[in-house]
Amino acid sequence: MGDGGSAPLHRHEGAPMRIRLEKRPQPSRRWLYLSPLLAVLVTMLAGGALFAALGKNPVEAIATIFWEPLFGEFAFYYRPQLLVKGAPLVLIAIGLSLGFRAGVWNIGAEGQYIIGALAGAGVGLAFYPLDAWFVFPLMVIAGALGGLAWGMIPGLLRVRFGTNEILVSLMLVYVAEKLLAAMALGPMKNPEGMGFPGSRNLQQYPSAHNADLIADTGMHWGAVAALIAVIFAYILLGRHVLGYHIRLTGQAPRAARFAGVDPARLVLFCLGVSGALAGLAGMFEVSGPAGQVSIDFNVGYGFTAIIVAFLGRLHPFGIALAGLLMALTYIGGEIAQSNLGLPAAAIQMFQGMLLFFLLAVDLLTNYRLRLLPRPETA
Amino acid sequence: MMDLSSISPILLLASIMAASTPILLAAIGELVVERAGVLNLGVEGMMITGAICGFAFAVNTGSPALGFLAAALGGAGLSLLFALLTQFALANQVASGLALTLFGLGLSALLGQGYVGIKPPPTARLDIPVLSDIPFLGPVLFSHDPMVYIALALVAAVWAGLKYTRAGLILRAVGENHDAAHALGYKVVRVRVLAIAFGGACAGLGGAYLSLVRVPQWTEGMTAGAGWIALALVVFASWKAGRVLLGAWLFGGVSVLQLNLQAAGVALPVEYLSMSPYLITILVLVIMSADRSRAPASLTRIFHASQ
């Protein structure tokens, strides 16, 4: 029979041909680059169908999302937003990609992002209203350490007890969200805020403000950090023995062990780095674009970054591009919301769809589709 | 002022039974999926999709029963996307499960737009005759809505099905060693797709129990991690159906207790109390992870028969 084995995608009686999957000896390089593009294209088509089903003009909706922020009438306003929204996504996704390559699944970046923001803002608020050059650097360090600590919890538990890091890191997102609410309503509440929840606005505290380095470009310290992270990850993966160990562990865990890779150290490294980068992203956000610790401070960058990491093929440069593309869907999505009345949830679904299609077309990278004549005996 | 005497043990135990039902349903479904060798991390996404499907149908038809049916179909439908990705496109199960959750959260928010602030038709309580009159045990065990009994029956059916039926044996064989099962002539992919759909239907029911009975209303993201807790529950249960029940009562107990403590006015801010179900989950995972030998051997491994 061999039917289940050859996994025919279409079984149609009387069809002369059938499709067969053959594993490629090596992943196709061509499809490695083509599949994200194909996925984006298919997502646009499916998204268009979704928008049409919602009673919107699909072409107009897609154009609003992908064209308007870059080349539309108000592009001068939206383009800087690309960096503002792309920077945290890239920063988080770079960290996640290291782990994903090694089979370490940190999916709690959202929590590490929140804790980084709380730690960074906490330091800034503690120094208020002191005007000193060292406040912001200390906040950066605190943000990184906060995220690092939160990421190390699943890391240490996995190394010490063999606990599943997927579930622990995810549970810690909910804990972090509750902590954020507790802080915004309690210890970090603005004493001059007339009882409203939320901290002081760090944008109005110059020593702690993560302002645009060049006015109105969106180029704040977070974008600089994201750029450094991309270059750092590229060198690490391509030139450093640790990067080699990460790749080896992902592809052949047993071989990696024989090659002298310490799996425990690798797990801690991956979760630590991804936690620290997510923490930094949170810290730059709370001291810059967001400005304050509030209940609804986090908007899901930690989860969207998972899509960014995969869309970028877990490659640093790919992630940089994917982060900008995802930022585009956020900005374009907001425009489509206000101009076309497209619901916010539709954009969220659109982003989820992208990951779906990416995983589906990835089949072409590792497998070859073959048309075979149908065997007579079948 | 804290007043613990306001917490009645009978009401507490009865509400634990109800509180544990959503995660019990989702976890027993996921257990079957994992015993077939597939890890579906999309439980949260399927639950919330079930929650809105069930809610919308119940509101529009006026029948909670039809709502639950729609929820099961919705959850199963979404899970087939996961099956398509992992069983036919041979995609990574962890990534596909995450995609399912992200997609499901978006989908449910979209579907639920017109349903915020509406009350669903009430699900009638089913007092089991005679048994529900037993003092103490009656109100605790035998005076609930039908879904509580259905969930318990499902656990028993899964336990017996896995242990004593031929189908259960095949499912376990596929989960332990898919190459051997394939060599014996079992349809690995077909078994797994069916298991995934069953898991999706159960998760959908669990979600609908939240939106139709527990809360009962629709809010975006209302599952709040229940699907992930259900996943943890399967690990806690060492992939055994009976222990899922135990675990669900434990988690149900924790969430009911913290709600009662909130109501009783404990001096701790609400935010810290509501962390407890998640922290307990982590704690339990740590304790249980010492015994990893019980995980199905083919879990998360991709099956492609040409190899």
Automatic annotation (TrEMBL), chain A:
Membrane topology, record value: Multi-pass membrane protein
GO MF annotation: an example: transmembrane transporter activity
Segments traversing the membrane: 31-54, 82-100, 112-128, 134-153, 165-185, 219-237, 266-284, 318-336, 342-364
Annotated keywords: Cell membrane, Membrane, Transmembrane, Transmembrane helix
InterPro entries for the chain: ABC_transp_permease
Claim: Transcription regulation is one of the keywords in the record: no
Gene Ontology CC: one annotated term: plasma membrane
Superkingdom of the source species: Bacteria
Annotated localization: Cell membrane
Protein's recorded name: Branched-chain amino acid transport system / permease component
Species per Swiss-Prot/TrEMBL record: Roseovarius halotolerans
From TrEMBL, chain B:
GO molecular function, one term: transmembrane transporter activity
Subcellular location as annotated: Cell membrane
Membrane-crossing residue ranges in chain numbering: 6-26, 38-59, 65-85, 97-116, 136-162, 193-212, 218-237, 244-266, 272-290
Keyword Transmembrane: yes
Membrane topology listed for this record: Multi-pass membrane protein
Lineage of the species this protein comes from: Bacteria, Pseudomonadati, Pseudomonadota, Alphaproteobacteria, Rhodobacterales
Cellular component annotations (GO), alphabetically ordered: plasma membrane
Keywords associated with the record: Cell membrane, Membrane, Transmembrane, Transmembrane helix
Protein's recorded name: Branched-chain amino acid transport system / permease component
